[in-house]
Amino acid sequence: MLFYALRRLFLVSITLLVASIVVFAVLEIVPGDPARLMLGINATEDAVAALRLQMGLDKPLVTRYFSWIGGMLTGDFGRSYTYSVPVMELVRERMVVSLPLALLALILSTTIAIPVGIFSAARRGTSADAGVMAATQVGIAIPNFWFALLLVYLFAVTFRLVPAGGFPGWDAGLGPALASLVLPAIALALPQAAILSRVTRSALLDVMSEDYIRTARAKGLPANTVLWRHALRNALIPVLTILGLQFAFLLAGTIIIENVFYLPGLGRLVFQAITQRDLIVVESVVVLLVATVIVVNFLVDLAYGWADPRLRTR
Amino acid sequence: MTMTIKSILAGTALVFALSTQAFAAKTDLTLGVALEPPHLDPTAGAAAAIDEIVYANIFEGLTRIGPNGTVEPALAESWSLSDDELVYTFNLHDGVTFHDGTSLDAGDVVFSLDRARAEDSTNAQKALFAAIDTVEAVDDLTVMVTLKQPSGSFLYNMGWGDAVIVAPETAETNKENPVGTGPFRFDSWAKGSSVSIVRNPDYWGDQVALEKAMFRFISDPAAATASLLAGDVQAFPNFPAPEAVPQFEADPRFAVVIGSTEGETILSTNNGKPPFDKLEVRQAIAHAIDRQAIIDGAMFGQGTPIGSHFAPHHPAYVELVETYPYDPERAKELLAEAGFPDGIKATIKLPPPSYARRGGEIVAAQLREVGIDLEIIPVEWAQWLDQVFKAKDYDLTIVSHTEPNDIGIYARDDYYFQYRNPEFNDVMAKLDATAGEEERYALMRQAQEILANDAVNGFMFQLAKTGIWDADIEGLWENSPVQANDLTEVRWTN
To answer: Which cellular compartments is it found in (chain A) (predicted)?
Structure first.
């Protein structure tokens, strides 16, 4: 077990190291000078040079990589070129929006999708199943920014129940903060729920045709018991895989929804940092996200073991 | 259960009543701005988003630019110019304090101007200070600026956001915590969301009507529309969605104010690269462009055609749109004369703003009509600066040059247009050294004509400023002679 953990840790470190090199190299190759971008087209060459010096961009590539990675190891993620505040502070400010939003969307999509998937699988071939499948197809096909705009026009512009966008901060109280996250969470959750319910349904149907289900039925267990106790648990493996992927996406891939709701989330931070060539922010956040994805995958692996005891011994 | 619902309803009604009451004496305003500034120090960055928050609100200079582009006194209540036009003597207002409580004196002015033009300065508009030879404090409230040569635009230059007066104690921290002398103080900045400013009770001039103003960052055009409709923001001085304007024009709750900017939107042409070094080729492009079609198609009808690099609202403007009128047949002839009877293949690099991306599609279609086949290459700003601006690796591009009175860029030999004309440079040198208004205007007219005749770039249109705000707000600028949201005269009328 210890050997397993060590090997795992070693692999994780290698992955992170490679990711950090790739991210750093890619961003250095991308054309664009952060100093020139900051000072614009009327700036004189010596003003740009002075700013490059201030930003530390005059040092050679390798030196900058090692000082960045060295800082990261000691918990110092560097300072943003544009905002000139510690990167960690920026990330923390965005995390308090992105993390609750991702969790909210995930909870919402799971609570919708799993019952719908089970419902649909249990009534396979009926018109109810066909209806659900059609609805989920639509849910996948609808662009989420468009759906988000519909939500805004309905609930913010017409009924004025919630703000059209923005985030007042948690200091403003739980109510206003949550109110500003409700629409984005719904807009994010629905397409995810559509995918998840289809995966749940097909996973369940696969399991339902297994021999052990037939055995369970043959020994006279009621259909519901077979479904809930034997089939569902085994069908959860692909569902968990999708959930893990979706969480990583929800954390940083929600840039479009963040734009529609002008939320100060992690996705917009990265996007803005890329366009402003705030390299240190992009590099640090991307490596943090890589780390998050690795951790989430690890948790999903553990959850596999919970769902399917056979996997624990491997 | 019914009781609870009733009490909730009663509570809601009460809140509603209170909020309507508060509305009567409204002194706060939430504005939408499309871009978040990288920081809040106008002396260390070119981003218009910085000035859109701090100009005239938080920071002030010796002079300032008014709503109609004229130079007005600010921290300097008066000034005089020596007979040889070389020495400006500024008399500062008495009793001016910075937001941190320290008082403003001549030493702060000397510090600010010296800092901006220092060797290691990171001021984005260092050229504004190029004419300065020395800056001296005569006494606490008098500053003497000696110029190297007479400069007709000096007072104007001192009104830019890049020339504001800062205190030595706080200069290095203004990026995060701007400390100026203006009628508003910085309050807070929620990164990614908004910047808040509050009234400065110790302001030296008249107190402003607003107690609090918040700038919210909303870049998505659809979100900007929704934010106004939902009442989350009450004003969008530079509204990013021209397509939604008719909807607001039809709605009596909103005022739609379309003014002008200093943005000459041009099809920049690489004059240093064949075949665009040939006058005939550039003339052909000028004849191939249908300006109104571009304005209608890309800007939903908002914008004024231009025939040179000059703003139509400027008193020295010359109407030159008809120098090379839209005439595709003539364009083809000129191409043939230049030695390209079979047309030209070239690229056009388009930065992100919609005037460039949407305008570029239309320009490409128009040029194709006369045999100039353009490959469209979308680029980000960072790439644009690197490839087009710095390396001059481009054929054509579309950019709005938003700096006021920037015709002088054509005299810079290393500028990305690669335009070199000694005659034009002469005119600019004379303009620099002339202070009399009439003579200056005559030189400006001459300069416009030279650029128009040389068809240096495809001169397309002056960018419009589309402002949308609550019909009960007054005092926001109609035009933008500088990129600012000056809130000093803004108030609710109801």
So the answer is: Cell membrane
Closest residue to A166, CB basis, from B127, B216, B222: B216
Cross-chain CB nearest to B390 (options A36, A93, A94): A36
Mutate to test the interface with B, among A36, A39, A41 (most CBs of B within 10 A): A41
Query: Which candidate from A31, A44, A261 shows the least CB-CB separation from B126?
Result: A44
Q: How far is A105 from chain B (nearest CA, A)?
A: 20
Q: Does the distance separating the beta carbons of B194 and A166 come in below 8 Å?
A: yes
pLDDT of residue B19: 46
CA distance B407 to chain A (A): 12
Kindly state the tokens that stand for B236.
């969008």
Q: How high is the mean pLDDT of chain B?
A: 92
Does the distance separating the beta carbons of A53 and B124 come in below 8 Å? Answer: no
Q: Kindly determine whether residue B123 and residue A47, on different chains, have CB atoms separated by under 8 Å.
A: yes
* Interface contact flag, B226 A169, Cβ < 8 Å: no
Supply the pTM of this predicted model.
Answer: 0.88
CB contact (8 A) between residue B226 and residue A46: no
pLDDT digits (tens, 9 = 90+) for B424-462: 999 999 998 887 889 999 999 999 999 999 999 999 999
- With 60 as the cut, is the pLDDT of residue B24 above it? no
pLDDT of residue B12: 46
Determine what percent of chain B is predicted with pLDDT higher than 90: 83
Residue ranges of domains in chain A: 87-313
Under the banding of pLDDT at 50, 70 and 90, the label for residue B13 is: very low
B286-334: pLDDT as tens digits: 999 999 999 999 999 999 999 999 999 888 999 999 999 999 999 999 9
Fold of A87-313: MetI-like fold (1.10.3720)
* Interface predicted TM-score of the whole assembly (ipTM), two decimals: 0.86
Nearest CA in chain B to A90: B191
